User: What shape does this take?
Amino acid sequence: MKSKLLVCAYVLFSSLLNASGLEIVPHFGGGSVYVRRGSTWYSGSSLWNLKPDVSLERVRQIHFGAELCAWTAEDEVRCAESKLDLFKPERSRNLGRVPSNTKKFHGYCLETTDGEIFCLQSFIDGNDLRYHYARVDTEALGPLQTISASATHVCVQTLWGKIFCWGENYGGKLGRGGFPFFQRPEEGGDWSVTYATAGIPFPTKAVGNGETNFTSLSVYANTSCALSDGPRDNLYCWGRLLDTSNLYMDFSLFSQTTSSQPRRLDLSVVPSGRLVGLVTGPLVGFGHDELGRIYFWGEYAEPLPTAQRLELRARILADPPPNFSISHLVPVQGEICAVGTLEAGGEALYCSRRPWDRPSARPELVPVDLP
Assistant: This one.
């Protein structure tokens, strides 16, 4: 009973902290950009031509993955190749209903206001492949603080600062040592079309053998990163860290570009030596310090010489706008956006933009104005 009260109290507190009238849908590829302010959705081909979009009035949240998925007002999840096909039964997939108390939609997984996680399961119904969201048993871990999910793996951070991951283990992105391809419970297991993780024993081996206390978490594709409570160099990543296809197929570099245990990255460029927020992308990550300066690590912008890439150190991306405090970072179309508050009051959105005549120059953070 005490554990459930802790969960409910934390979830309520977390919901109040994360309440925001401005939401931008993260994605690294091409396609449209989606932003929501209050109950109004905006869309456009880029960050700089957003317009109100009434066709999304039935959508609660959007998630970009292998396809575009939407949590609708009818508490269903629909996925399609484009927004235009979302509500066309013949052009979209209905992944089933979600719990009525869903708080955050992560595509193939979601979290509820009760602190529970539901993930997508596939099953055969006659000759048809169907889907439904089923509860994942994480009760043994205690209260959960953060969930981050890619299309093929899930990581959760507990209130006590430990991280547990399950799913596909390509490149060691589950952070539990070794490179078995799939890990469900401790002995591993099979894998179906999607997560198929609901209703099974939850893994009990923490990332990094539980020796580090983490404060935030972000995963994407084959890379996982987290921040610890350490005083300096508090950034850790595991899984695929660099693109080995650019390294002339030198397989001797595998151990330097891939890690199945959390690897600490060099934050010597950060004045305080530590980051307070992060977001992970495909072989790249972004973070910010307490002053609002934004940094990146991994494969971003102009390729560096191999020796510099293998250093795995953070580099400066952009300075903070004046009188603006960052709440969190969101990747969009290869750029990075910062959602936060202005000193004068009210939320604001700033996104990086490179000078068109100097693509290798440090980008500026430019305000995005919604009509």
In short: The two ends are 48 Å apart (CA to CA). The CA atoms of residues 29 and 333 lie 5 Å apart. The helical segments are 2-18, 254-257, 306-309. Residues 1-19, 184-201 have pLDDT under 50 and may be disordered.
